Amino acid sequence: MSKTFRLVISCPDKVGIVAAVSQYLHERNSSIVEANHHTDAEQKWFFMRHVVDAESMSVDIDTFRKEFAVIAEQYEMDWYINSSDERPKVMLMATKESHCLNDILHRWHTQELQCDIVGVIANHEDLRSMVEWYKIPYHCINVPKDDKMPAFQAIESAIDESGADTIVLARYMQIFPEYLCNKYRYRVINIHHSFLPSFVGAKPYHQAAVRGVKLIGATCHYVTADLDAGPIIEQDVIRVRHSHSATDMVRLGKDIEKLVLSRGLRYHLEDRVLVHGNKTVVFAQ
Amino acid sequence: MSKTFRLVISCPDKVGIVAAVSQYLHERNSSIVEANHHTDAEQKWFFMRHVVDAESMSVDIDTFRKEFAVIAEQYEMDWYINSSDERPKVMLMATKESHCLNDILHRWHTQELQCDIVGVIANHEDLRSMVEWYKIPYHCINVPKDDKMPAFQAIESAIDESGADTIVLARYMQIFPEYLCNKYRYRVINIHHSFLPSFVGAKPYHQAAVRGVKLIGATCHYVTADLDAGPIIEQDVIRVRHSHSATDMVRLGKDIEKLVLSRGLRYHLEDRVLVHGNKTVVFAQ
Amino acid sequence: MSKTFRLVISCPDKVGIVAAVSQYLHERNSSIVEANHHTDAEQKWFFMRHVVDAESMSVDIDTFRKEFAVIAEQYEMDWYINSSDERPKVMLMATKESHCLNDILHRWHTQELQCDIVGVIANHEDLRSMVEWYKIPYHCINVPKDDKMPAFQAIESAIDESGADTIVLARYMQIFPEYLCNKYRYRVINIHHSFLPSFVGAKPYHQAAVRGVKLIGATCHYVTADLDAGPIIEQDVIRVRHSHSATDMVRLGKDIEKLVLSRGLRYHLEDRVLVHGNKTVVFAQ
Amino acid sequence: MSKTFRLVISCPDKVGIVAAVSQYLHERNSSIVEANHHTDAEQKWFFMRHVVDAESMSVDIDTFRKEFAVIAEQYEMDWYINSSDERPKVMLMATKESHCLNDILHRWHTQELQCDIVGVIANHEDLRSMVEWYKIPYHCINVPKDDKMPAFQAIESAIDESGADTIVLARYMQIFPEYLCNKYRYRVINIHHSFLPSFVGAKPYHQAAVRGVKLIGATCHYVTADLDAGPIIEQDVIRVRHSHSATDMVRLGKDIEKLVLSRGLRYHLEDRVLVHGNKTVVFAQ
């Protein structure tokens, strides 16, 4: 895979944006590998993502940033450009359940996920051996029921010292405190084991069994201070029948959780997710 | 298709039920076409459905009923036996949207649904011509906002005069009054255009768009006095993307509504749905 | 829905195409409603589709065609621009089975499909009454086993006299002759009741039952002289179990056939399907 | 989970089988946890699976076997009874790709799969470290192109010495020789990375890309001497688009392969798969 740049833009919708951007890219001789546009007609907002072959560009990324800032200002753009060789740094967080963690670690180990896993933070020791097999630092930070703040400060330090830009709650069984939600806004990804907004909060499979639904699901979303209500990145469901016990639902749900989290994380790492208000534009392939 | 009997049983779980039932069926020489069992381990409740070849049985259905009542009493069974040549009578109800109505009428017309459609009740005239092409009586009963009771009494009369045993709300845009929900308990089937319990009530697609979900769905359920909270028969979902407008979601949703309603109705007509508490056991094929 | 133009382009991949097109669109003040690009890296081929708000454009469609031809020639484009108010003319063809026909007619009747249905050609009389309820001309053209050519000539005349630009084989049980496949290249859409390339030819459900597959499907494709081997537009599948008889598989399959055909037809009518070699690029929403 | 017995029967269809079996179970006081029946009307063959609570039975499994043999003979049954505490022994086979292997090992390690993994046979060293972390014996048996027989004899010895009753080809890139297919009939499970019977043989994703299909799949089947044509246990598919490269298809396919293989293996281990002719009856939950 050759080196690429990913240019991601969101701004008020106006005539001329595409022309301005593609004109600039053309003048810098950019070969466009992938391009996506979306106009939210209701909110009059425009979203654009380009992947360009880095080799083809006649300027380096710093020059690009300087030059493009002029266009960006003109159109009031929220924007950034990332290089595929600046791999995102990811901190994973877990408790005792290993299915999501094992899934992400394996995808990373086999080069399917383009990122660096800089560590795993867990509130129990159970997963240490698995994580250390991958030669990844394991931080066991216990979160006592009656005094959680010091633990979250230790977590914050561990994250910041690792240089992580993305935090993945891979079935981490603690509610993230509001101040960390805000500090790492749209950088903390959670997997919730229900098809949100159904069954917010604890024990969603139990809630699903009580209601007698015929499908159970999982939701990958950014964590915000509003519990289970952050912008949704990805969702999926699986069929259940009366013959499935609560234990079966947990087992079936795990497969969906793994898939939905790894897809959502992939979209995030590839700069495919653009947040606007409480909704996402996901430029999936 | 040769004539069959459908024997449907639910009762407290005990050792010996299957032996007793299959022994009786065997003594009457019954050839079993389809058999399903389910034990709800938590509620200690047992569910069973048999389809038997009517030709093979050495007794007629009335004798069966008399004889089997003895076994049924012993095991405290809720039970019934239906003959495939006593076709259920179905009253359809609609407003202006035709997708569910057209779908059911076409399936009935092509002998896919084994029932008699005894009429269509609508609160507008829009669908009369379509219905009358099928030579089905069309009852237009307007439901004025400020005085609905006389309308529902007229609806009740139309249902009762038709001899309908099943009422299908095929996108009928009125809330069924409590007294009718109770009178026709587990006989009124509704299609709700969301993946319940998400987005209860009005405008579920609008609610889904606002929340930014990645899948929209439909739910077929029995109508109870508790709005959109009756026992769920069938559900399904379809993927939506940011590029889908509210109009697109409505269009995509219609396909799911039709499918889910027709599947749910089919299960009901074939005596595949057993209600216990607020949940269903659905012996789908 | 306001009037739009759809500009569809495919050409050898080169740097500058997007800039040239978006520059031109910008100079004509075009407000872009939807835009899609795709580069086939292997074949070095580029595909692009724009939907622009017709009101916003400072030139009419004829001027556009004249002006744009200059750019098109420079980049060796295969291209066209269609206006949303020039509705495609569709000829439907069927035999005796009505599920696909009923589905398309209902979608058209409720304004879901943006086209004019100019007629139905069938080789039996069975579907006449249904079609005529929609006030659509019905051409019954019998195709005798031993002398099919005159029938196909009559079909050709009926198509040409109707002005149809799209022909839909909605479970038409005759093989289209090669000369008509060539004459109406990429304008004849068929629904095949299997997940191609599995089970080419006749009786695919029977073949599927014999092989014991766990999913059955349907394939919407352009008809070419090579039987069931034309470019695939859309496919989908549904799960089957051992408890499903061949009759059940036919019934389940019909739902997939309808959905896949109507999706494929919609993509075609909205100029979302670009054929290159024997493959399609489908700019679905 | 308490101890259960699984009684699996297939035999010519006759009136009285269910009565005889359930009468016997009742006389031995068996509490039935799960029961499934299927009659193949065409082949006049009957299939039945019972799960009974071992504690409830008044006889031990050896007595059961002796007593039940009488009934079995009368109805010409193919049958067996397994105890949930006699865990099946599984030998895994792989080459270099780890996704299926990691998936199965993780499910086994977290007690999701009720079996003993007795070893991994691979024709390369790549996966040794992963396997040994799980404390499972790793047999590296190279299969030279020009003289494969000694290798397969070594494989046969490793299997037989391990006492394995099930062999799983978890993306094992060698064709199993006919004599081993026959020796381990219906005990060797393979995952093929296509929706069979489409794309038999090598490079199915490449074949799928060339044909331009819109869904790719995977098939879990018993290995027979007839390449990729053995009885199918489970299949599933995932949607692909023109924007997916061959690399993307491989990545997406892996997720389906893992799921389909683990589901198929689970069905096999729980005695849910009954083979008749070249087809399976799968009593999934």
From TrEMBL, chains A, B, C, D:
UniProt xrefs under Pfam families: ACT (PF01842), Formyl_trans_N (PF00551)
Function according to Swiss-Prot or TrEMBL: Catalyzes the hydrolysis of 10-formyltetrahydrofolate (formyl-FH4) to formate and tetrahydrofolate (FH4).
Enzyme Commission identifier(s): 3.5.1.10
Protein name: Formyltetrahydrofolate deformylase
Annotated catalytic residues: D228
PANTHER family xref list: FORMYLTETRAHYDROFOLATE DEFORMYLASE, FORMYLTETRAHYDROFOLATE DEFORMYLASE 2, MITOCHONDRIAL
Similarity-based family: Belongs to the PurU family.
The entry's keywords: Hydrolase, One-carbon metabolism, Purine biosynthesis
Entry-linked InterPro entries: ACT-like_dom_sf, ACT_dom, Formyl-FH4-Hydrolase_C, Formyl_transf_N, Formyl_transf_N_sf, PurU, PurU_ACT
